[in-house]
Amino acid sequence: MNIGKISNEFLKNQIISKLTIKRKDVLLGPGIGRDCSILDFGEELCIISSDPITGASSQMGYIGVHICCNDIVTTGAEVVGVTLTILAPPDAQAAEIEQVVVDAERAARELDIDILGGHTEVTDAVSKMVLCLTAIGRVRKEKVVSFASAQAGDDIVVTKKAGMEGTAILAHDREDLLLRHFPEELVQSAKDFINHISVIKEGRIASSFGVHGMHDATEGGVLGAIWEISEAMGKGVEIDVRRIPVAAETRAICRFFNIDPLKLISSGCMVIVTPKGEKLVELLNANGIEAAVVGKVIDDSAKWLVTGEERAPLEPPDADQLYKALRFT
Q1: Which residues form the PurM-like N-terminal domain (predicted)?
Q2: Cα Rg for the chain, rounded, in angstroms?
C-alpha cells in the first residue's frame, strides 16, 4: 500500500463500514470529511479528535498539538486539552523524547490548553518517532458548526495559503538539500510557516460570524480537504484553482521536488463554507488573516476544478505529496 493516509474509498468500504454507533449519547461518529466525533453531555457537547504525526521530524510535538486542536475548532468548540502518546524507536535519544514534550507544551501554552496525559514508550515496532494525539473540546449545543446546514450556492473560502505545513516540514527536514539550491532567506521564510499552522483564530471568528461548515486542510492538501467537505455535505463543488493562494516559497520548493502544492499537507489553511463568503473574507482580513473565496457549493454530487474555460473533475485525495518529497534524493 502507498505511504500516507489510506484512500477514502478504503476508509469508507473496509473500515467505517465495519463500525456502528451503539450509544445514544454519540451524536456523530466516524465519516469521510468529519474532523471530530461529537458526544452529548447534556447542555454541552464533548468534541473529540485524534491525529498522528508521522511525516515530520523537527518540532513534532508542536505541530501535533496544533493540528489536533485545529480539528476541534472546526466544530465551533473550545479546546480543553490533548493527550499525547510517544512511540520512540530503540535508537532514540532521551533528549529527543524530552524535546517532543517541550515542543508540545510550548504549543499548549500558546493555545491556553493542557497536556492531559498520554503514554511514552520505546518500541522496535517503529523505526522513527511516532506521535498520536487526542484533543478534547466543549461547545454548547446551539453553537456547534456542522456541514449538515450547507446549501447550494454557498461560498467556499480558504484561509492563509495552501501547503504551508508541508513547506515548513520540508524546509526543516530537508534544509541542507534546499540550501544548496535556494537562498538562505527563502528557506528560513519557509521554515517560519510553522508558526502559522493554527486555525484557532479564524475558527473562532468564523463561528461567531455564522458558517455552514469548517475543515482543516491536512493530508491531501487543500484539494483533498475540498473533496472531503463535498462528501461531508453530500453536495458538489466548483473550484477556481487560480484563486487558491499559494506562497512564493511553497511554489519554489514544490517545483524543486516536482510536487503539487494544492495536494501538500496544509494545516493552517482552513476551508470554510458560508453563504456570505466575501463578507467573511473582509472580516478575516480585518483581523490579519488572509482569505479568499475559491468556489461554490453546487446542487449535485459533481466535483469540478475550473481553470478559465477548462473544467476537470476533482479526484479523491491520494497519498500526500510530502512523502514523495521526503524520499527525494
Answers
A1: 33-139
A2: 19
Closest to 200 in 3D by CA, of 281, 110, 294: 110
d(CA 292, CA 299): 22
CA 62/CA 54 separation, integer angstroms: 13
Contact 40, 83 (CB under 8 A): no
In this structure, are residues 38 and 144 in contact, taking their beta carbons and an 8 Å threshold?
A: yes
Helices marked H in the chain — which ranges? 8-10, 60-73, 94-111, 164-173, 175-179, 184-191, 200-209, 221-233, 248-257, 277-286, 321-326
Give the model confidence (pLDDT) of 57-110 as tens digits.
788 999 999 999 999 999 999 999 999 999 999 999 999 999 999 999 999 999
Q: Compute how many other C-beta atoms are within 10 angstroms of the C-beta atom of residue 74.
A: 28
- What CATH superfamily is the domain 147-326? PurM-like C-terminal domain (3.90.650.10)
* Angle in degrees, CA 220, 224, 230, rounded to 5: 155
Superfamily of domain 8-143: PurM-like, N-terminal domain (3.30.1330.10)
Note the pLDDT tens digit of each residue in 3-33.
777 787 888 899 999 999 999 999 988 887 7
| Nearest in space to 71 (alpha carbons), one of 125, 8, 141, 136 | 136
Q: For residue 191, what is its C-alpha cell?
A: 521554515
Strand bridging mode 26-28 / 213-216: unpaired
Please state the pTM of the whole predicted model: 0.89
Cβ 217 vs Cβ 224: under 8 Å: yes
